[in-house]
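User: Okay, second chain of the day. Same drill as before: sequence in, structure tokens out.
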Amino acid sequence: MKKQAFTGKWEKRWHPLRSEWIVYSAHRNSRPWQGAEFIKVTPVESYDPTCYLCPGNKRISGHVNPSYRDVFTFENDHPVVGMEAPEVTSDGFYKKEKATGIAKVVCYDPRHHVTLSQMKLEAVVQVFATFQKEMIAFEKDPAIKSVLIFENKGEAVGVSNPHPHCQIYAVDFFLKFVEQQIDITKHHYDNTGKNIFDEIISNEIDDGVRVIAENKSAIAFIPFFARYAYEVMIFPKKRHATLISLNHEELEDLVSVFHQVVRKLDMNFNNNFPYVMSIMQAPVDGNNYEDFRMHLWLQPPFRQPGLIKYLAGPEIGAGNFMADTIPEEKAAELQAINLTDYNHEQ
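Assistant: Same drill. Structure tokens below.
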């Protein structure tokens, strides 16, 4: 592992998957902070009679949840897209079309108060096996082109219900960030003859300083070009365009690395660490995307305990991220954590 001075003062790094500069000014992280309150986590009980995701409770649709014991999946009662979306007409310069698709909710566990980090590894593997099963079904549906599996965890990211769950949006169009990565991958290969994902993973392994967890067939790291302080990318080591093609051993390894990462994030600040997790996958429209590499993308908003990274002028107005931390420093924090000290498993 290479030794490196973690200065992070007035440094910019090129983000190869977004084609934009990220500016790092880690010396500003200790500046006085006024104007926003620190986010505090609200404790919850193992069962909430008002929760529409807990077993046996009635949802807003009138459907009653079964007394499920592990993973429970259902179609969203307030879907953002639908297979029965009404026809719309479009004239002139502005376009509009019906929003066709399927929106689902995946409840990880019947207990209202647990998180994926607190669940046993085998239970989390079952959750990801459910994701894989859903993807297999979507691939066979000609109406679906792209699928986003995502989890908004914690009050800091505005989650509407703390019950452990995620959502799936299967839509009839190409998801922007995946489409952008596919275009960048093609452009990079046309110019260099190399796969951009292979180069990123190879460089992270060679540098070593940002690797958070690794096993036989999966790896997790805070990337050299991270925008958020504790942003983590998790890849299978072999090339997979979606979750569909992972065998059981590869899926278990991927989940094991993910599980280590989220436990380290919790332990670092001794709380249920919030994040937005996106499972980045190639479209399922029948075309070949063998150069794309599926990955888990965790974007936690905290840069200090209880203090989130607010998007402001540079990010919203200019489209360039100004980071208050340097990736190597944050990776070193997580590398120093001993997972044998974890004592919140439920």
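The first strand starts at residue 11 and ends at 15.

User: Thanks, on to the next one.
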